[in-house]
Automatic annotation (TrEMBL), chain A:
FAD-dependent oxidoreductase 2 FAD-binding domain residues: 35-461
Name of the protein described by the UniProt record: Fumarate reductase/succinate dehydrogenase flavoprotein subunit
Record domain Fumarate reductase/succinate dehydrogenase flavoprotein-like C-terminal: where: 523-656
Oxidoreductase recorded as keyword: yes
Co-factor requirement: FAD
Keyword Oxidoreductase: yes
Automatic annotation (TrEMBL), chain B:
Annotated 4Fe-4S ferredoxin-type domain residues: 150-180
Keyword Transcription regulation in record: no
Keywords in alphabetical order: 2Fe-2S, 4Fe-4S, Iron, Iron-sulfur, Metal-binding, Oxidoreductase
Record's protein name: Succinate dehydrogenase/fumarate reductase iron-sulfur subunit
Pfam family, one: Fer2_3
The family this protein is said to belong to: Belongs to the succinate dehydrogenase/fumarate reductase iron-sulfur protein family.
Length: 657, 249
């Protein structure tokens, strides 16, 4: 059994007690300690900036041309915090409770409580940095609701919350760059973790412009490289999002936690053809006001606006009256799949449902009219005012929908379908965010920590910033306090030489295959296997087939991939090839993990384990644990377990009815 | 649809570039502009040729990575739309499309359509932040902010740092980008203490990077995918002048 090192004592005092007793590093020593941060998303940028402010010497890496372009920039809907500004009964405990329940009782209580506890300080910090959150007319901050909760605790900046939060963290990071406390390496990709005497001591990175390999020393290394949803090829993630940094850490000894826990987001723009390169999210915030429906008749070909009210099935409101359109994502996604599989889907492919704003437009229009004292305004004017309000709240999302589909969502309901969005799985970390390799940490989406088997909306941004601003600055000291006598390890140390040789070997092998098929060809094939057999619904037979198919595909990849261009130059195809090679290994592990977990929980739906109503059925007796996989060589992984103990929240069948 | 593409090819920063012409068929109207490039690149790889290098990541119009100069316009023909959000519905069968990288001496070409925009990071480093260490903040609602100011700050903060404003400007000025950040922070009470120094330092860095001066042609605003307004440039000018006066005093 793995030990997560959760501090003893009552839940409410664990973190404060930890903070006040943890080892400290004095300022003079901090200047001698070097920290490598891989990734400049919310987790990486906030960590790098905060550690540099404390006095550590930081090197930060990202593969984009600027730290500001990390995938976090694309987050739309919002960030949760237990501020209770709305006076609607929110509290640290409630946020904690909602998150544990939302995660279908597969997360650690201690971690989640800490997350809820620091959430309020995140909003304070961001506002101080100049993050322009939405405000009410009185000048105070505005909130909206998200799925899986009954309070309004989500802070937002139109549909661009991730952008604004990231630019806040990015500016804090640039300030430290200017002060000389952070050295920034953009267009660099980390390709290995270097270990000396069992501890993480540095990395090998490739300069993506020149193709040169570089060695970097650090007293510790932080992996903040984001999620691995792109293992499915099509996902809402940015094109470059990948698992490579986390996977290299895994191969260096860090266990991988719950790899099969994937979030399929219910509201995305459906696939339009074979050329599709990615899927676009329509923020969950749209479920605040939009209503989801399909026709009551199968294969109904009428235009949505021609289908009368009584012939529409608002299936979420029907099945889940208490939460309605705001059920958690896993529940909403499965319900959409169920309707489409049963023949009620809409659009050309019939793999879509409607997200309808007609009611919301009238409702907002009426409120607006009464605010302006125009209670008897004609219907068209009310609708026009309503559209104005909706545009202010969601305009950028509606515009995006219109550009992609060529349809006007103010006039006709949007067509949506679930898509891969987020990975709850990731590097296993203890309470201090340290992986099973001493000195190697994982933050943000790259770790497995706080969301259990299903993440609630607006909680990833919260977790990334909690990890970076408020957790790692304390926990890293506990490790580095014992490293103050460790001198920087020379870069010609055999561990660096060996590691670089291995990386160079893989690059040479890839370049020398000179096969017939592009990297994307293999990536798409992998994505199809994963989506069909390890996607929204999984079963034993399918998973076994998937494992064999992935193994065969992997073999073919290493025989037949074609990478044009050279190694010592800017070569995006070579970058992609390395990432797909890692996805192929990860995909196999995800299927193994899904096969092992013979229960349904959150986003992991094993068809063999469902209630009569088709809801996910957990098996707490046998599966109340975190699966942490150890790498033992190609295709060979050992399972370790971290038992989950629930002292406060008692696991029950999750109900949103 | 069948289209003719004339695309800038340049092996690296030192090499001389040239246009290369490609005929593409089977372009669907539902494709995004970059998906058309994906299809073309797949074909080039299959033919044993080198694909066209271009920057992109989110493909949702928010990361600011994509950066193509299309038929003489930064990000192509659609109003307030990045290259990645441009869809082939914008074109007709038989069209010829010329695609170039951003052209500015402060944005050197790395390869084909990929350029180096790190100058923007350095402008931010010069002062595009509020100096507040983690943990130093007061309660988020302690300072109410007038909604109009907050909305204007948000509108300025929407800049994605793509560089289209520079590419569109005949002087390659970075004023729209710089002014967007200066404005955002000047409009918020939190940004007030450093506002003078910020304006001076960021403008100084902009000049040092080799961006040209602003002659108010408005080309930047017209091509900015995020609708960043020229009013920000006016505000930067006011900030800059005010800073100049007070530093002399
Ligand atoms: C479209 C979309 C909308 C979302 N909306 C919301 C929302 O409204 N609310 C919410 O809470 N969550 C949302 N999420 C989820 C959330 O955005 C992410 O989980 C979160 O931003 C991840 O942050 P991160 O810092 O962990 O990683 P990322 O932001 O993904 O950053 C990863 C960083 O690692 C770097 N990197 C990766 N590999 C390497 C390598 N090998 N070498 C060097 N650098 C590397 C990258 O360059 C990048 O800088 C959304 C996600 C998507 C896809
Ligand atoms: S001001 Fe507009 S064009 Fe210029 S960088 Fe910002 S978003 Fe791009
Ligand atoms: S690829 Fe991100 S803005 Fe176009």
């Amino acid at each position: 059994m793995l030990n997560a090192k959760i501090p003893a004592g009552p839940l409410e005092t664990k973190w404060s007690k930890y903070k006040s007793t943890v080892k400290l590093v004095n300022p003079a020593n901090k200047r001698k300690l070097e920290v490598i941060v891989i990734g400049t998303g919310l987790a990486g940028a906030s960590a790098a900036a905060s550690l540099a402010e404390l006095g550590y010497k930081v090197k930060a890496f990202c593969f984009q041309d600027s730290a500001r372009r990390a995938h976090s920039i694309a987050a739309q809907g919002g960030i949760n915090a237990a501020k209770n500004y709305q006076n609607d009964g929110d509290s640290v405990f409630r946020l904690f409770y909602d998150t544990v329940k939302g995660g279908d009782y597969r997360a650690r209580e201690g971690n989640v409580y800490r997350l809820a506890e620091v959430s309020a300080a995140i909003i304070d910090q961001c506002v101080a940095q100049g993050v322009p959150f939405a405000r009410e007319y009185g000048g105070l901050l505005s909130n909206r609701s998200f799925g899986g909760t009954q309070v309004q605790r989500t802070f937002y900046a139109a549909g661009q919350t991730g952008q604004q939060l990231l630019l806040g963290a990015y500016s804090a990071l640039q300030r430290q760059v200017a002060l000389g406390n952070v050295k920034m390496y953009s267009r660099h990709e980390m390709l290995d973790v270097v270990k000396v005497d069992g501890k993480a001591r540095g990395i090998i990175a490739r300069d993506l412009v020149t193709g040169k390999l570089e060695r970097h020393f650090g007293h510790s290394v932080l992996i903040c490289s984001g999620g691995y949803g792109n293992v499915f090829f099509l996902s809402t993630n940015a094109m470059g999002s990948n698992v490579t940094a986390a996977w290299k850490a895994h191969k260096a000894g860090a266990f991988f936690g719950n790899p099969c826990f994937t979030q399929i987001h219910p509201t995305c723009i459906p696939v339009s053809g074979d050329h599709q390169s990615k899927l676009t999210l329509m923020s969950e915030s749209l479920r605040n006001d939009g209503r989801i429906w399909v026709p009551k008749k199968q294969n109904d070909n009428r235009k949505p606006t021609d289908i009368p009210e009584e012939e529409r099935d608002y299936y979420l409101e029907r099945r889940y009256p208490a939460f309605g359109n705001l059920v958690p994502r896993d529940v909403a996604s499965r319900a959409a799949k169920e309707r489409c599989d049963a023949g009620y889907g809409v659009g050309a492919s019939r793999m879509a449902v409607y997200l309808d704003y007609a009611d919301a437009i009238v409702r907002y229009g009426t409120i607006e009219a009464s605010k302006r004292g125009e209670d008897n305004a004609p219907k068209e004017e009310i609708i026009a005012m309503g559209k104005g309000v909706v545009a202010e709240k969601y305009g950028n999302l509606f515009d995006m929908y219109a550009k992609i589909t060529g349809e006007n969502p103010y006039e006709t309901p949007m067509r949506i379908y679930p898509a891969v969005h987020y990975t709850m799985g990731g590097l296993w970390v203890d309470y201090e965010l340290m992986t099973t390799v001493p000195g190697l940490y994982a933050l943000g989406e790259a770790n497995f920590s706080d969301h259990g088997a299903n993440r609630l909306g607006a909680s990833a941004l919260m977790q990334g910033l909690a990890d970076g601003y408020f957790v790692i600055p304390y926990t890293i000291g506990n490790y580095l306090a014992d490293e103050i006598h460790t001198k920087p390890i020379p870069l010609d140390h055999p561990a660096f030489v060996e590691s670089e040789k291995k990386v160079q070997g893989q690059l040479d092998t890839l370049m020398n295959i000179r096969g017939k098929h592009s990297v994307d060809h293999f990536h798409k094939a992998l994505g199809k296997i994963m989506w069909d057999k390890c996607g929204m619904a999984r079963n034993e037979q399918g998973l076994k087939e998937a494992i064999n198919e992935i193994r065969a595909l992997k073999e073919e990849f290493w025989k037949d991939v074609r990478i044009p261009g050279g190694q010592h130059e800017f070569n995006p195809e070579l970058e992609k090839a390395g990432r797909v090679a890692d996805f192929l290994e990860l995909g196999e592990l995800m299927c193994m993990d899904a096969l092992m977990r013979r229960e349904s929980c959150g986003g992991h739906f094993r068809e063999e384990s469902q209630t009569e109503e088709g809801e996910a059925k957990r098996n707490d007796e046998n599966f109340s644990f975190v699966a942490a996989w150890e790498y033992k060589g190609p295709g060979n992984f050992d399972l370790h377990k971290e038992e989950l103990n629930f002292e406060i929240v008692h696991p029950t069948q999750r109900s949103y009815k | 649809m069948k289209l003719t593409l004339k695309i800038w090819r340049q092996q690296n920063n030192q090499a001389k570039g040239h246009f290369e012409t490609f005929e593409v068929s089977d372009v669907s109207k539902d494709m995004s502009f970059l998906e058309m490039f994906d299809v073309l690149n797949e074909r080039l790889i299959n033919e044993g040729k080198e694909p066209i290098a271009f920057d992109h990541d989110c493909r949702e119009g928010i990361c600011g990575a994509c950066s193509m100069y299309i038929n003489g316009r930064a990000h192509g023909p659609w109003h307030e739309t990045t290259t990645c959000q441009l869809h082939m519905r914008a074109y007709n069968d038989g069209d010829t499309i010329v695609v170039e990288p951003w052209r500015a001496s402060a944005f050197p070409v790395i390869k084909d359509l990929t350029v180096d925009r790190s100058a923007f990071d350095r402008i931010i480093q010069a002062g595009g932040y509020i100096s507040v260490n983690t943990g130093n903040a007061v309660d988020a609602n302690a300072i109410p902010i007038d909604k109009t100011d907050a909305d204007h700050a948000f509108a300025a903060a929407a800049c994605i740092g793509c560089g289209a404003c520079v590419a569109a400007c005949k002087n390659s000025s970075a004023m729209l980008f710089t002014s967007a950040k200066v404005s955002q922070l000047a409009l918020l009470p939190q940004g007030d203490p450093e506002r003078k120094q910020r304006a001076m330092d960021m403008v100084a860095q902009m000049d040092k990077e080799g961006f040209g001066s602003c002659t108010n042609t408005g080309a930047c605003e017209a091509e900015c995918p995020k609708g960043i307004s020229l009013a920000n440039i006016a505000r930067l000018n006011r900030e800059f002048i005010a800073a100049g006066f007070s530093s002399e005093a």
